[in-house]
Amino acid sequence: MSSRLTEDTEDKGQPMFEKILIANRGEIACRVIKTARKMGIKTVAIYSDADKQSLHVKMADEAVHIGPPPANQSYIVIDRVMEAIRATGAQAVHPGYGFLSENAKFAEALAADGVAFVGPPVGAIESMGDKITSKKIAQEAGVSTVPGYMGLIADADEAVKISNEIGYPVMIKASAGGGGKGMRIAWSDAEAREGFQSSKNEAANSFGDDRIFIEKFVTQPRHIEIQVLCDAHGNGIYLGERECSIQRRNQKVVEEAPSPFLDEDTRRAMGEQAVALAKAVGYASAGTVEFIVDGDKNFYFLEMNTRLQVEHPVTELITGVDLVEQMIRIAGGEPLSITQNDVKLNGWAIENRLYAEDPYRGFLPSIGRLTRYRPPAEVAAGPLHDSGKWQGDAPAGELAVRNDTGVFEGGEISMYYDPMIAKLCTWGPTRDAAIAAMRDALDGFEVEGIGHNLPFLSAVMDHPIFIAGTMTTAFIEEQYPEGFNGVELPEQDLRKIAAASAAMHRVAEIRRTRVSGRMDNHERKVGSDWVVTLQDVSFNLTVDADRDGSTVRFDDGSALRVASDWTPGDQLARLTVGDDSLVVKVGKISGGFRIRSRGADLKVHVRTPRQAELAKLMPEKIAPDTSKLLLCPMPGLVVKLEVEVGDEVQEGQALCTIEAMKMENILRAEKKGVVSAINAAAGDSLAVDEVIMEFE
């Protein structure tokens, strides 16, 4: 295949822009800086008080302070961003995603100052960025659309009336929304009324626009989107699709390209329709047309995102096209150098979004300092090299690992912004290979100090429905109806971890016998017989060690060979157990290890037979009773209290609303009761597990 990116990025003299300002923060700002640097373009970062020490500020050539932490006082204040542009002399602005990326007034302000917008024309933003207008245009262009009400909705009563006319379930959405903000699914009048108000509040806080529309919610849907690329000369192409069906609270968690569901004919039909829609509004930049696809491969236009998508890396990995570079070149007036015939889908790519959310607390936001942040090493064995140059087909068995991030070890996760801290991507020649690479990459990703969703992502990668590629947007809701409580590993995996733990424990014990200053004639002997207990299962085994590793023999006569260079104190262990590789995170606990692998968080006790016998006699610690308390599940701000002291509440009744990381979370009663005390008020900032109210 020809080296498209090589041709595009070879020396062509001076770049079309000398300096670009990135009107964003976090990982997407870092991502844009990388490509701009590759193209020889200087970059300007903007930052709030909360982001003074952030990675994007350190990476940029210049940085300008623009205000307090809340986005509505800094990152989405157009005047402050314009001041930063004028002060630095930036000739172009890349908006990333979110914030001002789909704000027509911002694009107009840039045009008025003669600054290039690395995005589509104002007309395209206005028509496609507004979901009501875009759906009308799609209908006029002959694009299949979902039934709904596109007019403005005055109040909750009208929302309920419209919902009944459409028929439940319905999707209540913010017209100017994106990223799952201002979006609710309602299955009843009560949920429509409640969802309408919450959507309006979130939309106003996140986008400064509280307009809401309602459409039919397609059951058993798949969320599949088409990446388009258009220039200002009338050229337009599509770069395949992305499967984005695994979502939580309408926000994508896992994406892949291509989709395991589409066939070539459906892909072509969706792609051609997406390009036709883009051309109908004079689109010029990278954009994404999102579709809902049912089980019969009927597809319906959902919305068009007039910006770079969060999940763009998976498209880059299977096409070799640097989308950020193409956006910059299009903004500079260059025509596309790629035709539709040039677009070839090579291999498979998967992206997992690492969120600062605690899966064991219902995926609620978590903030704090990253005491440890060690992503797996990036491996450029796939189609897109770090330099952006095409590598051709990767040799069989070789895989790519890519991590787009905006944080660093010692940095702080703030309550003011989106909880995503990294996008981990893997590429493989096949889907199975990409999944296998992702499993190992997740196991090797070390994050400490905050709650995070790494265990959940590992669980998804091993889930039979995901492996089969038959997931829908209801996957998380259906497969984890009671939330995520960790993974129960099968006995085969437990045996491997037990063998590895016994071998590591023996190494640690031998280290402890070699401590200096011990008394004469008090040499401690390390035995070979151990009892390993994990996940309520015990294994009696014997460890025979030699220079190359250990042979672990179980009492049923089976044996596993364990080899590793792990030493006591290492928090990550890479082992070979039997014929398989095993990557585990290792923490020390009394009498053993805390082992995390494949979504499981295990307390592994390694004891002598006598210690194991005595351990069975120890009483179990009883957890404190919190059934009569409403605890704050995450750090956040009290938006509203729904009850008063003395009120009788029913199971499922809304008690209060907490806002954190731009999302409103309604806390509900778990059972019937009477409110005896309220310890917080609207406007209070609360910590995790702080008592909000008490019940009789």
TrEMBL record:
Keywords recorded for this protein, A-Z: ATP-binding, Biotin, Ligase, Lipid degradation, Lipid metabolism, Magnesium, Manganese, Metal-binding, Nucleotide-binding
Pathway(s) of this molecule: Metabolic intermediate metabolism; propanoyl-CoA degradation; succinyl-CoA from propanoyl-CoA: step 1/3
Organism superkingdom: Bacteria
Cofactors demanded by this protein: biotin
InterPro entries in UniProt: ATP-grasp (IPR011761), BC-like_N (IPR005481), Biotin_BS (IPR001882), Biotin_carboxylase_complex (IPR050856), Biotin_carboxylation_dom (IPR011764), Biotin_COase_C (IPR005482), Biotin_lipoyl (IPR000089), CPAse_ATP-bd (IPR005479)
Entry EC no(s): 6.4.1.3
CDD domains: biotinyl_domain
SMART domains: Biotin_carb_C
Ranges where the Lipoyl-binding domain occurs: 620-696
Keyword Nucleotide-binding: yes
Pfam families: Biotin_carb_C, Biotin_carb_N, Biotin_lipoyl, CPSase_L_D2, PCC_BT
Name by which UniProt lists this protein: propionyl-CoA carboxylase
Source organism of this protein record: Phaeobacter inhibens
Taxonomic lineage from the root: Bacteria, Pseudomonadati, Pseudomonadota, Alphaproteobacteria, Rhodobacterales
